[in-house]
Amino acid sequence: MAEHRISVDVDTTYVEEQSEPREGRYVFAYTITIRNVGTVPAKLLTRHWIITDANGKVQEVRGDGVVGEQPHLKPGQGFRYSSGAVLETPVGAMQGSYQMLADDGRRFDAPIPPFRLSMPGLVN
Fold it and tell me: How many domains does the chain have?
């Protein structure tokens, strides 16, 4: 049976040298590893992000591919890329999904589980 599954792992860092806390600018970098853990090759077509800061302000981002690429992943193959987000608060969260097209013609979503963005040293 054809299986359509993509795993998503995220590492985040606070980019102190690009941030201006006094001006409400907090810059975060994240590295994402997408891996095809299914049985059918699939191509990443588009992305959809929901970015929420501590004030509840939500930004939605949609676009083609990731970092200008639409990686085509065979079963077991991974793709890693880095990008960033700018928030007005020192803490926030991101989540979303990648829209995939499998080689068998089926479209499916690969969910990106919620992850936190937070400035180090904050008491939670």
Answer: 1
Residue 86: give its domain's CATH number. Answer: 2.60.40.1470
Report how far residue 12's alpha carbon sits from residue 57's, in angstroms, rounded to the nearest whole number: 20
- Three-state secondary-structure class, residue 69: strand
pTM of the model: 0.91
Instruction: Answer whether residue 98 is part of any domain.
Output: yes
**Per the domain annotation, does 17 fall within a domain?**
yes
- Residue-level length of the chain: 124
- DSSP code of residue 102: E
Cα-based torsion angle of the residue sequence 34, 40, 46, 48 in order, rounded to the nearest 10 degrees: -60
| Per-residue pLDDT in tens (0 to 9) along the chain, 124 residues | 779 999 999 999 999 999 999 999 999 999 999 999 999 999 999 999 999 999 999 999 999 999 999 999 999 999 999 999 999 999 999 999 999 999 999 999 999 999 999 998 875 5
Provide the domain limits for residue 59: 6-115
Is there a contact between 95 and 112 (Cβ–Cβ < 8 Å)? yes
- Token pair, residue 26, equals 């907090």
- Is 15 part of any domain? yes
